[in-house]
Amino acid sequence: MTTPPARPRCGWAQADAMMMAYHDHEWGQPVHDSRQLWEMLVLEGFQAGLSWRTVLKRREGFRRAFAGFDPDRVAAFTPDDVERLMADPGIIRARAKIVAAIGNARAYVAMRDGGQDFAAFAWGMLPDGPVRNMTGRVQASSPLSHAMSAALRARGFRFVGPVIAYAWMQAAGMIDDHDPACFRYGAQGGEG
Fold first, then answer.
1. Contact 91/58 with Cβ under 8 angstroms?
2. Is 185 designated active site?
3. Which of 17, 142, 156, 175 has its CA 20 to 30 A from that of 80?
4. DSSP code for 139
5. Helix (H) or strand (E) holding 131
6. Residue of 27, 38, 39, 44 with catalytic role
């Protein structure tokens, strides 16, 4: 009996089972839930300067430390919570990123309380739906990520530069950056 051939995947997803599972079932799946999009944005901010694998290994720790990524609860965090988080070995302990995550919860809540849905705002930046990269070359940023970054900053978000915004849009399915040979390329929510 022979083993069936492995599905063709993006090169970065072949390192280990955790990255493969993330690639196959999460990365690039269109996300339209506001709270989930905010969680993903916060995690992308923590990833800056590190590998995604580092964040993924600590994702459950982040969820525990940040109250299940409940924006209302995180927005109410105090300086004592910042110190608690700085001592938490289950997350990435970078003060600037922690403070930005709390501030981003406050920006999210302010948008919502002002009548602007976070998912509608984010996806509204792509009036024609997800952007498919057909080149096979992944960029670090794009004109769209620069525009997204500027729009987020104008609403009070921090740690959301064009590179972080691009990675977030990839992860959330706004940009399909799967390699054209990958079984997920063009799936946009399907299992391929």
1. yes
2. no
3. 156
4. -
5. strand 131-132
6. 44
